[in-house]
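Shall we go through a protein fold together, starting from nothing but its sequence? Label the sequence line and the structure token line clearly, so we can match residues to local backbone shapes. Would you write everything just below, so we can both look at the same thing?
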Amino acid sequence: MKKYYSILVFIIFLNHIISKDFYTFESNENLEISKRKIEEILSKIDSNNFKPVDETLGFQYRWRARWFSPFNYDIYLTTLEKNKNINIIRIEGNGGDALSFRTIFFHEKLSREELKDLTFYPIYDKYHLLGQTFNLIHPSLGILYAGYHSPSLTRSQMWYRGLWYFVIDSFLIWAGGRNWFKNKWDPAKYSNNILATIFLIRTISGIQNFHLIRAHNRYHTLGYTFPLDLY
């Protein structure tokens, strides 16, 4: 069992560190109004799944997604020391989430960024049953379904994760069929190892698939549009 726990921790760790991105822009409002609006936006999008963080890294305010949030973000707010009239918002997160929250802040008229020349596309519901069916066939297919025409993932994230799951799934099936490198390849003899590996990988990818579709459908429910050409 220790082998499987190690695999689980390794995959979760990698998915948290890859494709991180950030955007920094000026707020349209003063510090306190910006703080209130950020919390209102987060309450609308990610109700009960965000929290203020005391460790602000030099900023005056910081919010972070909780563990069960379908989104991945750190949002910072501060006033420039040399000019108290300029308030800066910084968004950090996985590629798709960071870009999506940047877009939402623009739609909510909190950002001074000029994004008007971009084309914003509506998005459509995705289905958990279909996503999990693809995931059971192979995790890569689940990722492609969840990420296609979706602000939850950038194209690079979608293809990278799909390739990653293909490689790790194939490698672990091969390793399990060799009894974790102790013997020659014998899928009949070591079928339990292979089945356990298949179940573990699809459980992890199934949880991710659930959260990706959950985030996508939340954006859709709120009626946001996105510059998907940037993704």
User: Anything to note?
Assistant: The first helix runs from residue 2 to 17.
